[in-house]
Amino acid sequence: MENSEDVFNDDYEHPENVEYILESVLMPSDGSSEFNLLAEDYNSILLNQCRCNETTCENIETCTHGGQYEFKPQQKELTLKKLENTARPIIECNDLCGCSKNSCLNRLVQYGPRRNLEIFHSTRYRSHGLRTKVHIPSGAFICEYAGELLTVTEAKKRLENNHTLGLMNYVLVLNEYSNEKKQQVTIVDPSRRGNIGRYLNHSCNPNCYIGAVRIDCPIPKLGIFAARDIEAQEELCFHYGGEDQSKNINEGKACLCAAANCTGFMPNTSIE
Ligand SMILES: C[S@@+](CC[C@H](N)C(=O)[O-])C[C@H]1O[C@@H](n2cnc3c(N)ncnc32)[C@H](O)[C@@H]1O
Q1: Closest ligand 1 atom number to CA of residue 122
Q2: Where in the numbering of this chain does the Post-SET domain appear (predicted)?
């Protein structure tokens, strides 16, 4: 496998009014008990390390975390196996695991965004967008959607404010379910502090997919992966409505994606 440093990169140019961060951070404290609970999770460590000895951690039968990624020899890249598999949580191995960092094939998102991404002015979306300078294979990791981690109360306030002032909205809500029951909600806002993930626009027929990835913290990272092979110069987009599009809310803005199946409006996941 190529050295992770040859494939990944996180020194992208960004506008000055945004603090560039490498991974999600806690929102400023508002002193609420809701914030304290979020902070507790943020500061916790997942204690479910694998006990593999020098293996590749590829297989769920041998590694408690494995089975979600596969190494594509042709592209010399680790990729997410099948999108349907994400019904099972993606948990990467970490420094506390028994495996070796050099041979483990269950570490991807933790190495940061891929190289050859470019922020550009998208004429279709009449604002910034993100595109790739080179071909990206299906399942490849693009980047994290990193920003401030918000409480539900703070997210509702910011959404309302964005709506009232007609600002662009960067708040993303990801619900995780188990047996149809909602287990956890993760809300990320890269409007003030964020990474390159903040430039992906919404499409009703997207070429990227967003999934929850845990490394060593109970709060997942929001990982953006290629939903299909993506050609050089293609703009990267994902569906803002997330996992259950029947529950999408209408953000009140016309969608500019121009896909054949476009609903005509920009969605977001509802916050309950
Ligand atoms: C996460 S930001 C994406 C990056 C943004 N275009 C920029 O210039 O920074 C989300 C905002 O981009 C715009 N946007 C994204 N997808 C869109 C779409 N399909 N149709 C219309 N506007 C879109 C909306 O203003 C939305 O609030």
Answers
A1: 6
A2: 251-267
Q: Which atom of ligand 1 is nearest to the CA of 237?
A: 16
Pocket, ligand 1, Cβ cutoff 6 A: 125, 127-129, 168-170, 198-199, 201-202, 253, 255-257, 266
How far is C-alpha 80 from the geometric centre of its chain's CA atoms?
13
What is the CATH number for 186? 2.170.270.10
Full residue range of the structural domain in which residue 147 is found: 4-269
Helix, strand, or coil (residue 39): helix
Residue nearest (by alpha carbon) to ligand 1 atom 4: 199
Cα distance between residue 73 and residue 161, in whole Å: 48
Q: Number of structural domains, the chain?
A: 1
State the Cα–Cα distance between residues 23 and 237, nearest whole angstrom.
20
Can you tell me which atom of ligand 1 is nearest the CA of 200?
Answer: 3
